[in-house]
Specification:
This protein is of the alpha/beta class. It is built from six helices and 13 strands. Keywords: GTP-binding, Nucleotide-binding.
């Protein structure tokens, strides 16, 4: 009679998210509710170990945040091409009886069961990565400015909330190939901190912008009041965003009524803003738009890398799980 020869079972495959510069949406994930790696094979006789399960990799764009769905605890963020995050680790294979052989017991009659792999529900969110985020009231001309400064063609109309989704554009203003990435989000209104309007739902897309471009509608009944209101709402909603450096532009100076008050409005905006980064433009006629983009490019280039504030830990006792949801692993 020979000794024990039962091989070990293989380790199950893991589910891994991989950051890919060539991917710009989460559409592949939206169409797949369940993502499963393959099972491992059982160990066999004659000391043959089971084959490992194959990992499943899902490509996601830079700026992707992954959270545990029930607790919203942050698992990780993929920012750079090639970054990887193991979101569900495969189970450990069981040991065959050959693994329990000792000098005293050279024919063990026991084996070890495998451990199941991790299963969890995830919340996956994409935060757009841009250099400049547009800020302002609805109908201030943000989308018109985006169209004037880039090849983007957002929906433009003369009524509030024409923009209902974020729009990205690239302004090519230099020969080095490094364009200025612009992000236009729906406008903010008074009460935005309490959830009014569309803007608050999309503010996360400008959290990593280095600079905020505050577009003020010069034809408004109270342009200065609009500027102050937006900054107050921003501070109440997200102090992290409110502390970001701003460049202020007074838009629609092609309108005669705005031209008459231009000097007065510029002086008041500089006083309220507390800095001199205030310019006049007409997005509709593209007046001063090229100059604005040039100054923005220089201003952005001297800003430090924008980073998000630390995410607060979630108390798992308030939302208990059937299993520990901290089993995330990163590498690469």
């Amino acid at each position: 009679m020979g000794g024990p020869n039962g091989g070990n079972g293989g380790r199950g495959g893991s589910v891994i998210f991989v950051c890919d510069d060539g991917t710009n949406t989460l559409a592949p994930l939206r169409n797949r509710v369940h993502i499963r790696a393959t099972k491992a094979r059982n160990g066999l006789g004659k000391g043959k170990h089971g084959q490992k399960g194959r990992d499943v990799t899902m490509k996601v764009p830079p700026g992707t945040l992954i959270r545990e769905l029930h607790t919203q605890k942050l698992a990780g963020e993929l920012r750079n091409h090639g970054d990887e995050l193991i979101v569900a680790r495969g189970g450990r294979g069981g040991r065959g009886n050959a693994a329990f052989m000792t000098h005293r017991n050279n024919s063990p009659k026991l084996a070890e069961r495998a451990e199941p792999g991790i299963a969890r529900w995830l919340s996956v969110e994409l935060r757009l990565v841009a250099d400049v985020g547009f800020l302002g009231k609805p109908n201030a001309g943000k989308s018109t400015l985006l169209a004037a400064a880039s090849a983007a063609r957002p929906k433009i109309a003369n009524y509030p909330f024409t923009t209902i989704v974020p729009n990205l554009g690239v302004c090519d203003i230099s020969d080095d190939g490094a364009g200025l990435i612009l992000c236009d989000i729906p406008g903010l209104i008074e009460g935005a901190a309490e959830g009014a309007g569309l803007g608050p739902a999309f503010l996360r897309h400008v959290q990593r912008c280095k600079v905020l471009l505050h577009v003020v509608d010069g034809s408004s009944d109270d342009p200065i009041g609009d500027f102050v209101t937006i900054n107050k709402e921003l501070e109440k909603y997200d102090p992290f965003l409110a502390d970001k450096p701003q460049v202020v532009v007074l838009n629609k100076v092609d309108i005669p009524e705005v031209q008459e008050r231009e000097a007065e409005l510029i002086a008041e905006l500089k006083e309220k803003a507390g800095h001199s980064r205030v310019l006049t433009i007409s997005a509709a006629t593209t007046k001063n738009v090229k100059e604005l983009m040039g100054r923005l490019k220089k201003f952005v280039s001297v800003q430090p890398e924008a980073d998000l504030p630390p995410v607060p830990e979630v108390n798992l006792a308030k939302a208990p799980l059937e299993y520990d949801s901290d089993d995330y692993g990163t590498f690469g």
